[in-house]
C-alpha cells in the first residue's frame, strides 16, 4: 500500500477515535486489509455517484472512506493514478446491529459536514428511497434466498435507469477458499448473536443469473486479494 493510501486509511479511521478503541482499531484493520475499499476508489466504481445507499453498513466504514477520500483529494497525497473520488452528497447506511449502528452514528456526530445518515433496521424492511448507487458487501448470505431476491428487486427499483449496484458475495463453487469464507462468517454470527446460523449461499453463476432476471447486467471482479477467501464483487448496472 502506497504512502498516500496509508494516509487515506488513517484519515478515514480518524472518524472512529471518539467511538471507542475497538471501533478505531477495527476501522484501521478493515480499511487497510480489505481490498474492496481501495478498489472502489482506484477503479472508479462509484464515479459520478453522489447518493449512496449502503445496505448492511456495519459501523459505516464506506461513508468514512468516501468522505476521507474527498478531503484527501482536495489536499495533498492522493494516490497516483487513482481517479477523483465521487462527490458524495448523501450517504444512507442501514445496519441491523444496534451496537454497530450506534458506533457509526457516534463516529460522524462531531463532523458538521458529514453527509452520513445511519438507520438502525433490517434491510428487508426499511425504505430504500432513491439512490445513484447501492452497495451491499458480504451481507446477503445472512438472509434466506427469497429475501435475497426481494432485496435485489427493491434495489433495482431504487436505482432507476442509470444506477449501479456493487454486490460482494462468496462463490459457493470456489472449493476450499469458499469453505474458509463460510466458516469465518458463521463464527462472526456466533460471536455477535450467540447462536449458530445457516448461511444462504450461491455459486457465482447463480448470483449473476438472479441479477439478470431482475434487470441487471453484471461484470465480475475478484475481490479477495491478500486473503484466503473466495469473494467476488459484482458490478451491476440496469439493462
Report on this model:
This protein is an alpha/beta fold. 42% of the residues lie in helices and 18% in strands. It is built from eight helices and seven strands; from the N terminus they run αααβαβαββαβααββ. The chain has helices spanning 3-13, 21-33, 35-42, 61-74, 98-109, 145-159, 176-193, 204-213; strands at 51-55, 90-95, 116-120, 133-137, 164-170, 216-222, 231-238. Strand 1 (51-55), helix 4 (61-74) and strand 2 form a beta-alpha-beta unit. Helix 1 packs across helix 4 (61-74). The chain starts with a helix and ends with a strand. The relative contact order is 0.14.
List the helices and strands and how they pair.
Elements: H1 3-13, H2 21-33, H3 35-42, E1 51-55, H4 61-74, E2 90-95, H5 98-109, E3 116-120, E4 133-137, H6 145-159, E5 164-170, H7 176-193, H8 204-213, E6 216-222, E7 231-238
Parallel strand pairs: 1-2, 1-4, 2-3, 4-5
Antiparallel strand pairs: 5-7, 6-7
Helix pairs in contact: 1-2, 1-4
Task: Give a short account of the largest sheet.
Answer: 7 strands, mixed
What proportion of the residues is helical, as a percent range?
40-55%
Physical arrangement of strands within the biggest beta sheet? 3-2-1-4-5-7-6
Name the CATH homologous superfamily: Vaccinia Virus protein VP39
Judged by helices, strands and strand pairing, the structural class is alpha/beta
State the CATH topology.
Rossmann fold
What is the multimeric organization of the chains shown? single chain
Query: How far do the termini sit from each other?
Result: 36 Å
- Strand-residue fraction? 15-25%
The tally of beta strands, per DSSP, is 7
CATH-defined architecture = 3-Layer(aba) Sandwich
Amino acid at each position: 500500500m502506497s504512502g498516500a493510501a496509508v494516509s487515506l486509511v488513517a484519515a478515514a479511521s480518524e472518524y472512529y477515535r471518539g467511538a471507542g478503541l475497538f471501533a478505531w482499531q477495527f476501522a484501521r484493520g478493515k480499511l487497510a486489509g480489505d481490498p474492496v475499499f481501495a478498489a472502489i476508489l482506484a477503479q472508479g466504481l462509484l464515479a459520478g455517484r453522489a447518493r449512496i445507499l449502503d445496505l448492511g453498513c456495519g459501523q459505516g466504514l464506506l461513508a468514512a472512506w468516501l468522505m476521507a477520500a474527498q478531503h484527501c483529494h482536495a489536499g495533498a497525497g492522493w494516490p497516483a493514478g487513482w481517479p477523483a473520488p465521487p462527490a458524495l452528497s448523501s450517504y444512507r447506511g442501514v445496519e441491523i446491529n444496534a451496537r454497530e449502528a450506534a458506533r457509526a452514528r457516534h463516529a460522524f456526530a462531531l463532523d458538521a459536514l458529514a453527509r452520513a445518515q445511519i438507520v438502525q433496521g433490517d434491510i428487508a424492511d426499511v425504505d430504500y428511497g432513491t439512490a445513484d448507487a447501492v452497495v451491499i458487501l458480504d451481507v446477503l448470505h445472512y438472509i434466506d434466498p427469497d429475501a435475497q431476491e426481494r432485496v435485489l428487486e427493491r434495489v433495482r427499483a431504487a436505482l432507476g435507469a442509470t444506477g449501479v449496484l456493487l454486490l460482494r458475495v462468496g462463490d459457493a463453487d470456489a472449493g476450499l477458499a469458499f469453505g474458509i469464507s463460510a466458516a469465518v462468517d458463521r463464527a462472526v454470527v456466533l460471536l455477535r448473536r450467540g447462536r449458530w446460523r445457516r448461511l444462504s449461499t450461491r455459486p457465482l453463476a447463480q448470483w449473476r443469473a438472479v441479477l439478470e432476471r431482475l434487470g441487471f447486467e453484471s461484470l465480475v471482479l475478484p475481490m479477495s486479494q491478500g486473503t484466503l477467501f473466495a469473494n467476488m464483487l459484482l458490478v451491476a448496472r440496469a439493462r
